[in-house]
Amino acid sequence: MLKELTRCCSALLLGALLVCAPITSAMAADSGSDQATLLLEKYQRQQERIEKIRANIDQVSSIEQAAISHRLLERHLHAFETINQLSQYLIEQKALGLADEQVLAQVEQIIAQNNQDLVNGIEKQQAEFNKAYSEEEADSIKAFQLYIEHLASSDLIYTAMVQQIANQRALGFSAEVEKQYLIDRLYTRAESFSGMVGLVGKKREELGKLIKITPDDQSLKDQLAVVTEQLAVAGESFKLTVSLLTQMGFDASFYQQTLLKLGGQITTDVLDVDILGGIAKRWLERLTEYFVEHGGEWIFKLFLLVAIYYIFRSLSRLVRKLMTKSLDSSKLNLSSLMKDMIISSVARVVIIIGILFALAQVGISLAPILAGLGVAGFIIGFALQDTLGNFAAGLMILIYRPYDVGDMVEVGGGVFGKVKSMNLVSTTILTIDNQTLVIPNSKIWGDVIKNVTAQKLRRVDLVFGIGYSDDIEKAEAVLNELLEKHPMVLPEPEPTVKLHVLNESSVDFIVRPWVKTDDYWDVYWDITREVKMRFDRDGISIPFPQRDVHFYPATSEAAQIEK
User: Domain of life of the organism in this record (predicted)?
Assistant: First the structure.
């Protein structure tokens, strides 16, 4: 029953929709017509208010006239916004095929009249501005204020005209006359701004020179501030003008180049192929002119620069060779690092002197370069505090020489190996198993440094244990004999063989022969091997850790107690 009721309701709803569809379309069309009518009525009311203001504008004082004029501009903008909304709505309706032809005809007349009003407004405003500006002192605050107000209102009017022409074309109205008029006005305005960029730039240079001569003249500083701000304000209107010209289909690439020079900012418009091509062409022309005029001079300076550099580089190599021979033959006990640092420093100083001399010869002032190097050195030193700490530690290692290249050392908290190389920042260690480790000098200098090969002689410390039942004198004689026969064991200092400890499982002898540092491990391994083989032949045991456990049988009384 419920299913049948649902089916009946669905059928009734579908039928109602099919019947009401034409009615809904008609209502939408009527609604659209009503909305267009409402916007037309709103625009007419706004125009009536504008006419009333115009009729009474001459009956108020001069101060009130300025306020009324400002209010009149606001009213015009509100009316334009209304007609723009109506145009946008009609564009949408026309795309759907629902536009009312009668309303379109009315809107066409209104837009034509509105265009004429905007043209009259531009010309009237320009005339009023010219008159008011001529009565003020040039570069004064009042004149600058008038200029700002003129640019702001002109920007609004031109923007409205461009939007209105776009609406005309979208609605299918003829707008070629208005378009050509607007392009001419915008082109003249862009040319004016372009000329202003160069004119104001020159004026700023002149004022800057005058201020250097009379730095206490506040009027010159005020003029410079006004001119600078005037250029900035004009730049914004210039940017808008170029954008409006581009929207009208006018090639404004040349003005884009001027904008780039004025603002120093790259926008998406500047990335246009034509604009980039124009910029590149101008730069190429200027570069060509400069090269034709100064090319020979710069070629000679470049040749001189290269020649001086190569001369001083050859001199640096010669100084490096002489310093190397001198230090190698001298009796000074210098480390390898100290020698390398002295040689490299002297060679680099020669190169730096050559570069500075070459720059001075081509006419480059050295004072700013040296000042810049000082500032850069301070910044780099502040940023590289840890590196400078390693550098300081490297200097301490260089001075006190705890190790040198080729020494076997234990540094950095347990790193053991041969010093492969070192500099003022780090030390490279080659471990016994052939691993390369680079250790910062600050970690080495801040810890214990163990130099195994610093001395020519080393003592080999060995410990051998025999059993408690073995002959002590025989074992001692065997150990002495092995040391005497080994060719690498030195007679002086005399080797030591002594009974040292009665250990838990063994009687321990210490064996301490002296050897050359390079023979340390050979003697260590040889003696250990010979002792084992000789003890085995002579029947001397080498005990391993052991413990004797004794079991005592329990007596009958103890067993009875445990029970």
Answer: Bacteria
